[in-house]
């Protein structure tokens, strides 16, 4: 199953300007807040979380909140979903890709459910 999302980086910049750290705490876990620093990275994480929620088919809400999804980075800077995220949503595997250019951040997510072949 796949999901995709795009966001204007300016929207994230405005949110950070208006609400500061409280805005980040609303949708980034403590580990994620250490990893992401620039508004474009933060926007990429936002897009990736919305894309994940579309891939599993719930959207962001009660069943799947921003903080239920955790995206970490490997030694080469590749983002990946934490094992806790896979476990919470009963997924066999999941992968994502993020890009930013021209004032937008975009993310694509693919998930493999445990009961899928
Ligand atoms: C699904 C969700 C992620 C959509 O995000 P969005 O940015 O409003 O809308 P997008 O343009 O990115 O995506 C819209 C498309 O998502 C798809 N979509 C909607 N619900 C979906 C679901 N449950 N699963 C998979 N895809 C879904 C539809 O194809 C929709 O297109 P349509 O309107 O033509 O039907 C939604 O859960 C959401 O709005 N989340 C934001 C929650 C939030 O807290 N925002 C904070 C604002 S400050």
Summarize this entry quickly.
Helices cover 41% and strands 29% of the residues. With 117 residues, the protein is an alpha+beta fold.
Order of helices and strands: EHHHHEEHEE
Small molecules (ligands, ions, cofactors) in the structure: coenzyme A
Number of domains: 1
Class based on secondary structure composition and strand pairing: alpha+beta
Question: For the record, what CATH class applies?
Answer: Alpha Beta
What topology, given as strand order, has the largest sheet?
1-5-4
User: How many DSSP E strands?
Assistant: 5
Q: How big is the Rg?
A: 14 Å
Distance between the termini: 12 Å
Could you tell me the mean pLDDT? Answer: 96
CATH H-level homologous superfamily name: 4'-phosphopantetheinyl transferase domain
**Which residues sit in consecutive blocks of at least 5 with pLDDT less than 50?**
none
- Specify the number of helices: 5
**CATH topology description:** Ribosomal Protein L22, Chain A
Largest sheet: 3 strands, antiparallel
Approximate shape: globular
Topology, element by element:
Blueprint: E1 2-8, H1 9-19, H2 21-27, H3 30-35, H4 39-56, E2 71-73, E3 79-81, H5 83-88, E4 91-101, E5 104-113
Antiparallel strand pairs: 1-5, 2-3, 4-5
Helix pairs in contact: 1-2, 1-4
The protein binds coenzyme A (COA).
Coenzyme A binds at residues 5, 50, 53-54, 57-61.
């Amino acid at each position: 199953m796949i999901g995709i999302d795009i966001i204007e980086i300016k929207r994230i910049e405005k949110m950070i300007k208006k609400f500061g750290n409280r805005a980040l705490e609303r949708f980034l876990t403590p580990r994620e807040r250490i990893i992401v620093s620039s508004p474009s990275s933060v926007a990429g994480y936002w897009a990736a979380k919305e894309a994940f929620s579309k891939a599993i088919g719930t959207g962001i809400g009660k069943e799947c909140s921003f903080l239920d999804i955790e995206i970490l980075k490997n030694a080469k800077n590749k983002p990946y979903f934490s094992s806790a995220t896979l476990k919470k949503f009963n997924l066999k595997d999941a992968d994502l890709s993020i890009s930013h250019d021209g004032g937008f951040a975009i993310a694509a997510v693919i998930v493999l459910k445990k009961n899928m072949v």
